[in-house]
Write a structure and sequence with these properties.
Pathway: Aromatic compound metabolism; 4-hydroxyphenylacetate degradation; pyruvate and succinate semialdehyde from 4-hydroxyphenylacetate: step 1/7
Order of helices and strands: HEEEEEHEHHEEEEEEH
GO molecular function, one term: NAD binding
Strand content: 35-45%
Number of strands: 12
Radius of gyration: 17 Å
Family: Belongs to the non-flavoprotein flavin reductase family. HpaC subfamily.
Keywords: Aromatic hydrocarbons catabolism, Flavoprotein, Monooxygenase, NAD, Oxidoreductase
CATH superfamily: Electron Transport, Fmn-binding Protein, Chain A
Structural class: alpha+beta
Protein name: 4-hydroxyphenylacetate 3-monooxygenase reductase component
């Protein structure tokens, strides 16, 4: 196996290409971000999510502005960040558009609860953080949205799902088992 890096995307700026390759090596939790409201209901799979502060509890979510769903999120402002366990990889694939399931069919799956303002909350999520987009800033091709959370649900079991090297991977809770917890 060669350790040389090979270009994955052609026809784009070499620096941008290198950046994408470097980001493929940044493992990140897999999330399905959902919204519902007067602008419609939709969801996306995203790994560009992180905490900002706990006072008030705020997350940062990045969404491509050229996506048709950007306008729905921006208009509704109410969202739920669902942190996926490994057992729900198929949900991540559906919301990443990898399976051909329509948006309506994705929300007809028997895995959803209705949260505040009708926002879909994933029943089996490791954590579900409902909140409101309180600020958004355009940075290049993406909108960086700050979501102030007001309702949080957390599970104490389940393995994590991460995205690394352009693939989904299961991360077991081995440390709890090893610690006897």
């Amino acid at each position: 196996m060669s350790t040389e890096s090979t270009p994955v995307h052609t026809g784009i700026d070499p620096l941008r290409q290198q950046f994408r390759q470097a980001m493929a090596h940044l493992g990140a939790a897999v999330n399905v971000i959902t919204t519902a409201g007067v602008h419609g209901r939709c969801g996306i799979t995203a790994s560009a999510v992180c905490s900002v502060t706990d006072t008030p509890p705020t997350l940062l979510v990045c969404l491509n502005r050229s996506s048709a769903m950007h306008a729905v999120f921006d208009g509704n402002r109410n969202v739920c960040v669902n942190v996926l366990p490994a057992s729900l990889e198929n949900i991540a694939r559906h919301f990443a558009g990898m399976t051909g399931l329509s948006m309506e069919e994705r929300f007809q799956l028997p895995v959803w609860d209705e949260g505040d303002n009708g926002v879909p909350v994933l029943r089996g999520a490791l954590a579900s953080l409902q909140g409101t987009i309180v600020e958004a800033k355009d940075v290049g091709s993406h909108a960086v949205m700050f979501v102030e959370t007001h309702e949080i649900r957390v599970r104490s079991d389940g393995d994590s799902l991460i995205y690394f090297d352009r693939n989904f991977h299961r991360v077991p809770r081995a440390w709890k088992a090893a610690a006897g917890q």
